[in-house]
Specification:
The complex is a heterodimer of chains A (378) and B (137). Chain A has 378 residues and is mainly α. Chain A has 14 helices and one strand. Chain B is mainly alpha-helical and 137 residues long. Chain B has six helices and one strand. In chain B, helix 3 packs across helix 4 and helix 4 crosses helix 5. The chains are: A mainly alpha (378), B mainly alpha (137). The interface between A and B is large, with 77 and 75 residues. Strand 1 of chain A pairs parallel with strand 1 of chain B.
């Protein structure tokens, strides 16, 4: 026998048959029962499930092959409907591997074929065992009742380009109503919307504030001093990377454009909360829209001069490096504000650690190079 | 054959009569393979025929085929058991039941041109309850 090949071969056969007769488990089950009955009649007491499955598969394939061959012979004779002789010919074809009496005679009459005689003999001898269960006709074809067309109802289609034989449109209510979603889903949805609203409000206020800053931001750091936190002031003074202009550009993208779009989509998706959200949202947008527009314009105008102002007023990029032993920190100019050093130093802590590690690794490597016996021992 | 040729006209006549009778008898015959199943698979293969006798004819043919395969594998099973029982009659006494196994079936099917390879290490047990002790061969 074979080991791997056998397995793959049978698997292949199985998948093949599955593809061919896929989806009718009911028919397969019936075939199994029928084959089991035949086996019982022959004299078997029990069976392996796999053997029964295989044999029932083969029975099904046999029926299929007979049908195929009979159809072929019927078509060969110019008929679409098969008759008994097509089946006999198909059976002869299938039985030619084993042989039957009279197979050598090419011109034999089909009615006197050995196959037919064997079949008659079998039918007369074999005890008649009907199938164990009553079977409904299958496969069950669900008959649909299609929607009546415009013509059947006697209605005029809403517009001219729709022919009358097409099915009618659903009622307008069905279009308006929305399929109710799960409780939890809607809950999550509303929660998300609420959260989004809150966030949006916060962002709006922030934006407003920042736009007010930016309005007179480039004029001098004195206006920045109006801000609530000293961090921004510091950033604007010392580090252009942390200064306001960059930040509100970011804001401009994220707050004004995106949420409006999103909220629209939300409103389309979930009209249950639609009105509230929309009204809320619109109120927010509406109230802030003129201010935002004004701010935007001013921003656009001031952008260019702002840039120049930046380069003029503010010192170029200043990295404040706390530890002087690093080589790359030397060419950079040290900042005048010493208080920042402590703040920025932690950024480089990691680098220090890394360096330390690197150094240690190098040391270890060197050691191992010098005395490779130790390494071998390790 | 010679005999057949000599009485060809008579024989043919007899055969025709027998065939007609057989086909007629199929109206009352109920094969083990149900009509619905055969009809379903014949329809799948493209064979269309409203005559219930032809459906039953295919059913009888399939039943005959399966019965032949089954009886062949029964012979294989019996032969295998007879070979085993020679040495360990006592041990295998419990396993005297006739079980349709893949091993026998694949041997029987080989003669019919169906090449079935059973999985060597596929642990399949007989569907009806057999003692766990008797199960391992």
């Amino acid at each position: 026998m074979s080991d791997g090949g056998g397995e793959s071969g049978s698997k292949h056969e199985k998948t093949h048959s599955k593809r061919k007769f896929g989806g009718d488990d009911f028919a397969q089950a019936i075939a199994k029962i029928a084959v089991a009955q035949i086996c019982e009649k022959v004299g078997f007491q029990t069976f392996q499930q796999s053997a029964l499955g295989t044999l029932s598969d083969i029975a099904v394939r046999y029926i299929h092959s007979v049908g195929n061959a009979a159809t072929f012979y019927a078509n060969l004779a110019g008929r679409t409907e098969g008759n008994a002789f097509d089946i006999f010919q198909a059976l002869e074809e299938l039985g030619s591997a084993q042989g039957f009496t009279g197979a050598s005679d090419v011109d034999h009459c089909l009615a006197s074929s050995g196959i037919v005689r064997e079949l008659i003999q079998y039918a007369s001898e074999a005890t008649e065992i009907p199938f164990a269960y009553p079977i409904p006709r299958f496969p069950v074809v669900k008959d649909r009742n299609p929607k009546p067309s415009f013509w059947q109802i006697g209605e005029e289609p809403p517009s001219e380009h729709i022919p009358v034989w097409l099915p009618t449109f659903p009622d307008p209510q069905t279009c308006l109503q929305v399929p109710t979603q799960d409780e939890s889903a809607t809950d999550a949805h509303t929660e998300m919307i609420e959260l989004g609203k809150q966030q949006r409000k916060m962002e709006m206020s922030m934006l407003n504030l920042q736009q007010r800053f930016s309005g007179n931001g480039p004029e001098g750091p004195s206006s920045v001093a109006h801000g609530d936190n000293s961090k921004e002031k510091q950033a604007a003074e010392s580090n252009p990377f942390l200064s306001a202009p960059l930040q509100f550009e970011e804001k401009e993208v994220s707050t004004v454009v995106l949420p409006a779009k999103l909220s629209k989509e939300v409103a389309f998706k979930n009209p249950v909360v639609e009105k509230r959200v929309v009204s809320n949202h619109i109120s927010v947008i509406d109230t802030f829209a003129p201010a935002i527009e004004a701010m935007k314009n001013r921003i656009c105008e001031s952008k260019e001069e702002q840039k120049t102002a930046l380069s003029d007023q503010r010192p170029p990029v200043q990295f404040k490096i706390g530890i002087g032993k690093k080589s790359f920190s030397k060419p950079l100019k040290f900042g005048s504000q010493n208080k920042d050093v402590g703040k920025i130093a932690p950024w480089f802590c990691k680098d220090n650690e890394k360096d330390e590690k690197k150094r240690r690794a190098e040391e270890i490597l060197k050691d191992s190079m010098e005395n490779p016996e130790e390494l071998a021992q390790l | 054959m010679n005999h057949h040729n000599q009485q060809s006209s008579d024989g043919r006549h007899d055969d025709d009569a027998a065939l007609t009778e057989f086909l007629a008898s199929l109206m009352d015959y109920t094969p083990t393979i149900p009509d619905e199943l055969v009809e379903h698979y014949l329809a799948k293969s493209g064979f269309q025929c409203p005559d219930v006798r032809l459906i039953r004819l295919v059913a009888v043919a399939t039943q005959k085929f399966i019965a032949e395969v089954a009886s062949d594998s029964l012979q294989q099973c019996k032969a295998r058991q007879a070979a085993v029982v020679k040495d360990k009659r006592d041990k295998q006494q419990k396993d005297k039941r006739l079980i349709l196994t893949m091993e026998d079936l694949s041997k029987a099917l080989r003669e019919y041109g169906v090449n079935v390879k059973h999985q060597e290490y596929f642990a399949d047990n007989p569907s009806t309850g057999v003692d766990p002790a008797a199960r391992d061969e």
